[in-house]
Amino acid sequence: MAYDDLRTFIRTLEQAGELKRIAVEVDPILEISEIADRVSKSGGPALLFENVRGSRIPVLINAFGSPRRMELALEVNSVEEVAGRIRELVQMKPPEGFLDKLKMIPRLAEIGSFIPKQVKDGPAREVVKQENFSLFELPILQCWPQDGGRTITFPVVFSRNPETGKRNAGAYRMQVFDDRTTAMHWQIHKQGAEHFRRAVRSQNQSRDRKGAGNQGVEYSTALSGQRSGEPAEQAPGSGRMEVAVAIGTDPAVTFSSICPLPPDMDEMLFAGFLRSKPVEMMRCLTVDLEVPATAEIVLEGTVDLAERRIEGPFGDHTGFYSLPDEYPVFHVACMTHRRDPIYSTTLVGRPPMEDCHMGRAIERIFLPLMQLQLPEIVDIHMPFEGIFHNLMLVSIRKSYPGHARKVMNAVWSLGQAMFTKCVVVVDEDVNVQDPREVVWKALNHIDPERDIQFVLGPVDSLDHSSRLPNFGSKMGVDATRKWPSEGFARPWPDELRMDPHIKALVDGKWEKLGL
């Protein structure tokens, strides 16, 4: 049965022994982060801080921070079950006869039941504040000492494509500047940023048609030398883009907001698929957007198309501070929440952290979609230490010369996989879930000059080592066995394996050996 809201999930975590309530007073400035960091790295439970200095609202953190809690969040015994459901969908064949069509009806009806459901009202609007409110009523964390400020780290940000009307929901951090204003960390490659660019382009085209000239501002991440949080100059008559933010949603909605879905796929539809029940959505009071009706907290407002402010630094999932940069600014016009809301947040930093377990679930769940486009892929693995976008290990069924290089380039063409800094391709008999085996075999199999290739292209915005923001080099390693058709004329040696008869003989004597 799908979770109705975040608090239903919290009850499940508590019943499963996966949640610890903390009654001791704690400070949202750094102290909660230090506690959560220690708990995350030791494999500890989800934490619900009930006595947070400066706020009456409790804080939930580390709710997804273990394989077991990810299974509870998705209501499965293994995240592979979700991958299996996706595999069934993508492998569904067109019906060939009348009986096949009849058999398809239940499946089509099930798919139809995932579509978000519109409702008139919901618990997220039990309290409405349009005047005399402050974001600092919320127990927003400052996560690390050099952070530019307190930051909302686990929001579900809703925007609409101004050209197609299609919705996007993404988890974009929001550094708080003042009582009603935050940064909107739309990295240049994300769909929120694409909606913003299209809104700017639409505004510029409208001005051109009116003969006013192009006064719009392109989306840019170049620094302007402003101080952190200092307002940028705004173009006269600049337009605005409507945005809504839900904090504390049910786990399927939260998880869907971080998933690398195709650009035109509605995250709320995917959340309905994950929970096997439609997400109830209600229209906002001040903007033409819908939000989950059972969210704990909702922020409504606009982003000015011409305004930028310096956001950052921010202690990021790389284990380093992401650098200050210019980002759009979100102006909050209305805050609604439940009568006794719960503030859901997360902490990122040097792995392992909560986001690592969410990333591992994404790896397993989306493997079937990658295999749909690249059926030669046997398995993939993105180790925690590679913070996902820095290293991908791929095993393939090699079928022709240069096949590994084809796979590398294909990976770099797949959505957010384009950010992968290093792709290592091995043969199908290598267990990529065991990085020690991959390192052993890969380093034995490669001739560095022959088997390593470099390409230039887009890189993750958080990559502080790239030569330019968002642009740099990536490396592919062909660690497969080399064939004569690839110019390798020498014999390839066999791997060391003991004779099975001897292994069985020793097995029979093991207890007597006293070892």
Task: Explain what this protein looks like in three dimensions.
The chain is α+β, with helices and mostly antiparallel strands and 515 residues long. It is built from 13 helices and 23 strands. The strands form five sheets. Strands 5, 6, 7, 8, 9, 10, 11, 14 and 17 form a nine-stranded antiparallel sheet that branches. Strands 19-20-21-23-22 form a five-stranded mixed sheet, sandwiched between helices. The radius of gyration is 25 Å and the shape is globular. Mean pLDDT is 90; it is low at 214-237.
In a few lines, what is going on in this structure?
The chain is of the alpha+beta class. Helix content is 29%, strand content 23%. The longest helix has 20 residues, at 354-373.
Largest sheet: 9 strands, antiparallel
Count all strands and give the number. 23
- Which structural class fits the helix and strand makeup? alpha+beta
**What count of structural domains?**
2
User: What CATH architecture label of the largest domain applies?
Assistant: Roll
CATH superfamily of the largest domain: Electron Transport, Fmn-binding Protein, Chain A
Strand content: 15-25%
Q: Give the low-confidence spans.
A: 214-237
Q: Assembly type of the shown chains?
A: single chain
What gyration radius follows from the Cα positions, in whole Å?
Answer: 25 Å
- The total count of helices amounts to 13
Shape: globular
User: Average pLDDT value?
Assistant: 90
What would CATH call the class of the largest domain?
Answer: Mainly Beta
Helical residues, percent: 25-40%
Distance between the termini: 50 Å
CATH topology category name of the largest domain: Pnp Oxidase, Chain A
